[in-house]
Write a structure and sequence with these properties.
It is built from 1 helix and 11 strands. It is α+β, with helices and mostly antiparallel strands. β5 and β6 form a beta hairpin.
Length: 160
């Protein structure tokens, strides 16, 4: 479980309340769908002081100064987050479901081993939970090394 402190949001937050508590909303908590490795923006309800995330390994929640909540899908699954006011009273509760985005994916199965590829337009290896260890490790290592090279290049360019 993870807690985030939210700065005073003031009167500018009006429009989109996540969800009223279950007693005030018979339909129950809001269901929010987020794709893996993508972000979704929501507006926090007025008076939010604290956000509690049930499982931050599934969905990462970041609060911006302007009352915008950024939810990023980190791992397929389902979790919740709860908004509390300064007295610790529940303002809203929402469920977040994280799933793989549709399309452009290819799954290669070899017996019990499998590997994921992203194909748009050419197929490139990607990392996904459950991939065969050799494929996962090689794709993750190459991605980290590529990022390191890009960071070196941008740092060298900044020194000029």
């Amino acid at each position: 479980m993870s807690r985030l402190r939210v700065p005073a949001l003031g009167a500018m937050l009006a429009a989109i309340a996540l969800v009223a508590p279950a007693s005030a909303n018979e339909a129950g908590p809001e269901q929010i769908g987020v794709f893996l490795d993508q972000a979704k923006l929501l507006k926090l309800p007025n008076g939010t002081e604290t956000i509690i995330v049930g499982n931050p390994a599934i969905a990462d929640v970041t609060v911006q100064r302007n009352g915008v909540l950024i939810i990023t899908g980190r791992m397929p699954g389902r979790t919740n987050f709860i908004a509390l006011d300064m007295n610790g009273t529940i303002i809203s509760e929402s469920f977040v479901s994280v799933s793989a985005p549709p399309g452009n994916g290819l799954l290669v199965m070899r017996g019990l081993d499998f590997a994921h590829y992203h194909c748009a337009p050419n197929c490139q290896p990607t990392v996904a939970l459950g991939d065969e260890e050799k494929h996962f490790g090689r794709a993750a290592d190459q991605s980290l090394r590529r990022d390191a090279l890009a960071n070196q290049s941008s740092a060298a360019g900044a020194k000029r």
